[in-house]
Amino acid sequence: MDKTESVGRPFTAAVITLSDKGYAGEREDKSGPLLKEMLTEAGYVVEELILLPDGEEMLQRELIRLADERQVNVVFTTGGTGFSERDVTPEATLAVCDRMAMGIADAIRQYSLSITGRAMLSRAASGIRKKTLIVNLPGSPKAVKESLEYILPHLGHGLDVLRGTSGDCGGQSPQTHQG
Question: Fewer CB atoms near the end CB (10 Å): N or C, the chain?
Fold first, then answer.
């Protein structure tokens, strides 16, 4: 099985960019389209690409809609994870999740620290709402690419377990075995 291939049908995804300037048309969103392209190349079906201003209320509403109504397998957010007053993506994510999956956000931070010390400033979170995984990614296209390349090969198994198409959580995948 290919490292991003799932058991059965392809994974569905949605991408949400949080950017006041992007939403106002003052800056082109490059991170959202890059995420969509990378996910599509990996075999995911990207059902929605959304651009929102920074802020909790609209983001919470979209995360709930995507999980509860659209029932996508995974939602990736980009932006809103820093120290600015308007950077509230983690708070919105925490507010809508039933369970947390902090290992994903922690892994991204740890990997990113090998590239830049500024990774310690990330407040990104990851969690689960019903059967949808929500992952916060940084806002810059470079950081989005690095982060997604790092986690994507390992997400398939978790997504299969989450949607009930795999019951094995114990073993290591061939991609992660260190021999």
Answer: C
